[in-house]
Design brief:
The complex is a heterodimer of chains A (251) and B (122).
Chain A: H1 8-62, E1 67-82, H2 84-87, E2 90-94, E3 101-105, E4 108-113, E5 118-123, E6 126-131, E7 137-141, E8 146-148, E9 153-162, E10 167-188, E11 195-200, H3 208-215, E12 223-224, E13 230-233, E14 238-250
Parallel strand pairs in A: 9-14
Antiparallel strand pairs in A: 1-4, 1-10, 2-3, 2-11, 4-5, 5-6, 6-7, 8-9, 10-14, 11-13, 12-13
Chain B: H1 9-31, H2 37-45, H3 48-63, H4 68-82, E1 85-90, E2 94-96, E3 99-109, E4 114-121
Antiparallel strand pairs in B: 1-3, 2-3, 3-4
Classes of the chains: A alpha+beta (251), B alpha+beta (122).
Chain lengths: 251, 122
C-alpha cells in the first residue's frame, strides 16, 4: 500500500483532539445531569424510606406493636426529628361548639435535601413533599382519618411525635421508636353543629395545600371555610379523636 | 500501523455490548423499585380476622339475649382496640329453610376497609 500521505503525528493529534473534546463535552453537559440525577435518586429513596417509617408508626398505633426500628440510608441531605412542643404546628378540632375545642400539637420528621430544594416531612401520619421556596405541597402517603357514612362517625387520628432532644443525622441511620400512650375521646356532635378542623403548619414548612387536598378529598369529605386553614363537615353524630404519642428514642 | 495485528478487536466490541446491556438493566431496576408497596399494604390492611372475631362476639351477644350494655361494649372495644367503627342490629326471627334464624346486620369500617354483611344466626 502507498502510505506517502499518512502521518502518524497528525493522526495522533486528530484522535487526541476528538478524545479531549469528548471528555470536555461530558464534563460540561454530562456531569451536571449526573449530579441532578443523583440528587433525584436520593430524594426518591428518602420518599420510600419515609413511607417505611410511616408504616412503622401505623404498626405502633393500629397493630398493638410496642416498639419498632428501621435502618435506612439518608444520603444527599439531613433527617431531623422535631419534638411536638417545639414544632409549632397543630391541629385544632372542635365539635362546632365552644365546649369542645382542643389544639393537638404534632411533631415531625423532616428530610432536607442538600443539593436540591426538596423537603419531605412525616407529620401526623402523613408523608408530604414540598419545594423549598415555593408555596405548594403534595401528600405522598395519607393518614387514616375517615368518615363512616352508616354511623355518621368522624374519626380523627393524631400522631404526636416526641423526642427528648433535637436530633438530626445523615448517612446510615436507625430510627428507633416506641408508643408511649394513646387516648381515645368520643365527643357527641349535636344536630346543626359542624365538626371543624384547623391546620396550622409548623417549623418544617407550609404543608397547608397538601392538607387541604386531603381534607377536602373523598375519604374525609370536608369543606373549606371562609377562614384560611379551617375545614368543616356537617352530618356528623359522633366525633372520635384518637391521640397517639410516639417517642423517637434515637436516630 | 498497517502491519498491526488486529485479531483482538472483538474484545473491545464485546465490552461495548456488555456496557450497553448493563445500562438498560440499570434503567429497568430503577423503574421497578416502587412496585409492590401498595399491593402488600392492601393485603395487610384487610382485617379478615378482626371481622371474624367481631362476628363471633355478635353471635354471643345474640345468644345472650341482646343486652344493650354488651352491644355498647362491643362497639367501644372495637374502636379502642381495632380502630374500627362498628355498628350492628338484630332483626326479628325469620324462617330460613324450615329453621328459625335471626337476621344480623353488621357494619365495619376502619378507614381502609368498609364491610357490610347480613348474616342469619340460628
Amino acid at each position: 500500500m502507498n502510505e506517502r500521505a499518512v502521518s502518524e503525528a497528525i493522526g495522533f493529534i486528530i484522535i487526541l483532539g476528538i478524545v479531549m473534546s469528548g471528555i470536555g463535552l461530558v464534563t460540561l453537559y454530562g456531569y451536571p445531569v449526573l449530579v441532578k440525577e443523583q440528587s433525584n435518586t436520593d430524594v426518591r429513596n428518602m420518599e420510600r424510606a419515609m413511607i417505611v417509617i410511616q408504616n412503622d408508626m401505623k404498626s405502633l398505633c393500629f397493630k398493638n406493636v410496642p416498639y419498632k426500628e428501621t435502618t435506612l440510608q439518608v444520603s444527599g441531605g439531613t433527617l431531623e426529628v422535631i419534638n411536638a412542643t417545639s414544632y409549632g404546628g397543630f391541629i385544632n378540632v372542635t365539635n362546632g361548639t365552644t365546649q369542645f375545642q382542643e389544639n393537638y400539637t404534632v411533631g415531625a420528621l423532616t428530610y432536607r435535601s442538600n443539593r436540591g430544594t426538596e423537603v419531605i416531612t412525616l407529620e401526623n401520619g402523613a408523608v408530604m413533599l414540598r419545594q423549598e421556596g415555593s408555596d405548594g405541597s403534595a401528600m405522598l402517603a395519607e393518614p387514616r382519618w375517615f368518615y363512616d357514612e352508616a354511623t355518621k362517625t368522624f374519626v380523627v387520628y393524631i400522631m404526636n411525635i416526641t423526642a427528648d432532644a433535637y436530633m438530626a443525622k445523615s448517612g446510615m441511620t436507625t430510627v428507633r421508636m416506641s408508643l408511649e400512650n394513646s387516648t381515645t375521646q368520643s365527643i357527641p356532635v349535636w344536630p346543626g353543629n359542624k365538626v371543624t378542623v384547623e391546620y396550622k403548619s409548623g417549623s418544617s414548612g407550609d404543608y397547608s395545600t397538601a392538607w387541604e387536598n386531603y381534607l377536602t378529598g373523598t375519604s374525609v369529605g370536608m369543606e373549606r371555610t371562609a377562614i384560611d386553614g379551617k375545614y368543616e363537615r356537617n352530618d356528623v353524630d359522633k366525633l372520635v379523636i384518637k391521640e397517639y404519642r410516639i417517642k423517637i428514642l434515637d436516630i | 500501523m498497517a502491519c498491526m495485528n488486529e485479531d483482538g478487536q472483538w474484545i473491545v466490541l464485546m465490552g461495548l455490548l456488555v456496557a450497553v446491556g448493563l445500562f438498560f438493566l440499570a434503567l429497568i431496576i430503577n423503574q421497578s423499585a416502587l412496585v409492590g408497596q401498595t399491593t402488600a399494604e392492601g393485603v395487610l390492611e384487610f382485617p379478615k380476622n378482626d371481622i371474624r372475631d367481631l362476628r363471633e362476639a355478635i353471635f354471643d351477644y345474640v345468644d345472650g339475649g341482646c343486652q344493650e350494655a354488651v352491644q355498647k361494649d362491643i362497639i367501644a372495644i372495637s374502636l379502642e382496640r381495632k380502630n374500627a367503627v362498628v355498628s350492628f342490629s338484630v332483626g326479628q326471627r325469620v324462617s330460613i329453610s324450615g329453621q328459625q334464624a335471626y337476621p344480623v346486620e353488621i357494619h365495619y369500617n376502619n378507614g381502609v376497609t368498609e364491610y357490610d354483611e347480613t348474616v342469619y344466626h340460628y
